[in-house]
Amino acid sequence: MSKYIEMYKSKLVSPEKAVSVVKSGDWVEWGSFACRPLVLDRALAQRKDELQNVKVRAVCTAYGVPEIVKVDPTREHFCYNNWHFSVIDRKLSDKGLCSYVPQLYREAVGYFNNYIQVDVAMLQVTPMDQHGYFNFGPSVSHAYATCNNAKIVILEINENIPRALGGNSESIHISEVDFIVEGENTPLQQTPVIPFSEEDRMIANHIMEEIEDGSCIQLGIGGMPNVVGKMLAESDLKDIGVHTEMLVDAFVDMYEAGALTGRKKNIDQRKIVYTFALGSQRLYDFINNNPMCATYPVNYTNNPNIIAQNDKVVSINNAVEIDLFGQVNSETSGVRQISGTGGQVDFIDGAYNSKGGKSFICLTSTYRDKNGKNISRIKPFLSNGSIATTHRAAVQYVITEYGKAVLKAKTTWQRAEALIAIAHPDFRDELIKEAEKNGIWRRSNMR
């Protein structure tokens, strides 16, 4: 241990000294989700007048607007980019202060290994352990690939980061680090449990009809996945397993209720497998040094071939809208980026190829626009400028509060009929007319 302490002391510097290595034109990669650097952000922002065109990439910004964005509204000095938008990133993008980076989440590690230049990596991590390792905590994702391909690695220590057991690639050794900064031990950003609506509860009821003992669950973010987790915790289902990209509080509910054992999994048996965690302090306390939790890099958790090795994989994800051809938009409102592709496509493919697996795209049938007008989420075509997150041929189940539509192996007219049947009743006649106009309706279809 004494050897590692000496190495630690030799690499420990002030935030100002650490960020002095950043040069104009550099690409700087930040940690993701709850582990974005804070004191390093502030120190880098103070160098604004010395730097030009420093490009920064992050994932799903927490802790408020980054200091480098606050000090540079023209983006001449710092160009901020993001792999997956949070509410903060969305609002920054609306002002022209944040650019989106499209990705298939499962490919993130490969991007760093093959395509991405990283001049400086900056990440928040746990304090060093007795073996000289720093743990990436709840934000493993592509953290090691970022550091492994960076010219300079700077770690910001935060004593509040939980130690997440692997898996693999959950830690980095001090011998691989250039500089260490001791941060202010800010509590991790907590995301409150999103409240669910009556429509969410109805959608969750439809999903619950399809889940069996021994199912292996993936949940996305939002009110509806949360209510599914709550219902699973309160159900009589047993031996539920977990293989997910995002670990949320609902899994803790399931575990404490005794529903979650992972006993029937074919791989990582009895382990809760995830690549990042985002939620309450209760969730962070749950993963801390918990041998039941195994965090892996995203090229493992989101690899469809690995996902499919477990039986009865159930993938549950939200969507913004779907058109009558079955194309799913889960990330934009027109041309406005509101979130990201994430791992939806990864888990749809993995669940479909799992023995007994099922993937669900879930959305309320309508939403209200800013003028209070009721708008259908099932549309003749995706809204102008909207991105097709999931290809129509990949979609298996679509669920609204009005029921379930199975799209696999369906003709275009069968798809249209199945989707119109679960649309809000007020819009069904209009959707039928549009389907007829677009040649995806037959006279034998429902009326």
Automatic annotation (TrEMBL):
GO process terms (BP): acetate metabolic process; acetyl-CoA metabolic process; butyrate metabolic process
GO MF annotations, alphabetized: acetate CoA-transferase activity; hydrolase activity
GO cellular component, one term: cytoplasm
Gene3D superfamilies on file: 4-hydroxybutyrate coenzyme like domains, Acetyl-CoA hydrolase/transferase C-terminal domain, Glutaconate Coenzyme A-transferase
Pathway where this protein functions: Lipid metabolism; butanoate metabolism
EC number: 2.8.3.-
UniProt KW Transferase keyword: yes
Residues annotated as domain Acetyl-CoA hydrolase/transferase C-terminal: 279-435
Primary localisation category: cytoplasm
SUPFAM superfamilies registered for this protein in UniProt: NagB/RpiA/CoA transferase-like
Entry keywords, A to Z: Cytoplasm, Fatty acid metabolism, Hydrolase, Lipid metabolism, Transferase
Catalyzed reactions per annotation: butanoate + acetyl-CoA = butanoyl-CoA + acetate
InterPro entries: AcetylCoA_hyd_C, AcetylCoA_hyd_C_sf, ActCoA_hydro, ActCoA_hydro_N, Butryl-CoA_acetate_CoA_Tfrase, NagB/RpiA_transferase-like
HAMAP family: But_CoA_trans
Family under the similarity heading: Belongs to the acetyl-CoA hydrolase/transferase family.
Function: Coenzyme A-transferase that converts butyrate to butyryl-CoA.
The protein's name in its UniProt record: Probable butyrate:acetyl-CoA coenzyme A-transferase
Organism: Desulforamulus reducens (strain ATCC BAA-1160 / DSM 100696 / MI-1)
Lineage start: Bacteria, Bacillati, Bacillota, Clostridia, Eubacteriales
